[in-house]
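User: I'm curious whether this sequence folds into something compact or stays loose and floppy. Could you predict its structure so I can see for myself?
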Amino acid sequence: STIRSIAEGIKNNSVDIDDPAYGPVKDILNEISRELTIKNVTPTETALFIFQLKEAIIISINKEYAKNHEKSAEAVLIINRQLDKLGLFTFEVYANTKESIIKEQADAIL
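Assistant: Here's the prediction. I'll summarize afterward.
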């Protein structure tokens, strides 16, 4: 699942979304972003989908590390970095998908 892939990155202290652990989550986000772009959903709305995960995950992290505030703070920093990068990833997918759609439309006209 998306959240499990993100959690794996936290466990590895990885904020590099090019890490193979992020492959499944990027595949899911790529598909979601492409579908939303085709439906004319804005890139902001698409990225907000990712950013809304933050609150739920941070609550979960705080519960998990309730007695270890240092570990909790470290995990929250990692999740913020991860989800920010994943939000930007969805914007890249949006831009690439939109460009592809415009090219297909131009080719159809010619």
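Summary: The chain has a mean pLDDT of 85. The radius of gyration is 16 Å.
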